[in-house]
Amino acid sequence: MRSEETEALDARLGARLAELRTAHGWSLGELADRSGVSRSTLSRAERAEISPTAALLNRLCAVYDRTMSQLLSEVEAEPQAVVRSTGQPVWRDRASGFVRRSVSPPHPALRGELVEARLSPGADLAYDRPPVTGLEQHLWVLEGALEVTTQGIAHRLDVGDCLRMRVWGPIRFRCTTPEGVRYLLAVVRP
After folding, report:
1. Helix, strand or coil, per DSSP, at residue 72
2. pLDDT tens profile 9-68
3. How do beta strands 112-119 and 98-104 pair?
4. What are the backbone angles phi and psi of residue 19, rounded to the nearest 5°?
5. DSSP label at 68?
6. Does this model's pTM top 0.85?
7. Is pLDDT above 60 for 160?
8. Cα–Cα distance measured from residue 157 to residue 46, given in angstroms and rounded to the nearest whole number
9. Angle of CA points 74, 110, 107, to nearest 5°
10. Which of 37, 130, 143, 146 has the smallest number of Cβ neighbours within 10 A?
11. Cα distance between residue 7 and residue 47, in whole Å
């Protein structure tokens, strides 16, 4: 069951997704063709009948040339210079076991942002394309272990390990420990 706060965020997100589609002059069918997401799912997301998954938002971000943080920041309050831990937006994809905290939400004048991410034990999160081609990412494991596959190469990361990468194609994050994994992701827009 969704909380009132989650429903309000989903409503603002749905409205923003509809605005973006309209601004591009696309029908639901055209957006479905571009994103690989069904028309019915897109329609339900725009009407806030469903809470979009990370994979769905990633596909839409790729079509709209945005990072997920940028999209989510467009429906959240205006970013401030100091973001207290209690004010850092948290988004959950319950289907995949992915929890995302915007530690330093994106700002139009800046290219970088910090994201704290958690994956539940056994979570396997795959994106078929980057939200922005050539996106620079620095992933630092804080707790647990993680396997990241990018450009066909699997990287096993343990506590303290850092993976630097540019994301050009599919990417996969897989939790390889029974206690889950927590990592910091520095994202830099090209």
Report:
1. helix
2. 888 889 889 989 988 899 999 999 999 999 999 999 999 999 889 999 999 999 999 888
3. antiparallel
4. -65, -45
5. H
6. no
7. yes
8. 37
9. 20
10. 143
11. 11
